[in-house]
Amino acid sequence: KVEEIVEKIKEGPPVSRVDDVELYWQNIKEVFEGFEIRK
User: Which residue numbers delimit the Acylphosphatase-like domain (predicted)?
Assistant: First the structure.
């Protein structure tokens, strides 16, 4: 879930400091049928 990932981002890595996280939700502008990963 996106919310769980955002909470992890707020914590940050063990030796880091995260001062602020801003999150903006937006409505969908386009719908994609799929994607591919190229190497």
Answer: 1-39
Whether the model pTM is above 0.90: no
Domain locations in the chain as residue ranges: 1-39
Q: Is the pLDDT of residue 38 over 90?
A: yes
Q: What is the 3-state secondary structure (H, E, C) of 3-27?
A: HHHHHHHHHCCCCCCCCCCCCCCCC
CB contact set of 9 (below 8 Å; sequence gap of 6+): 18, 21
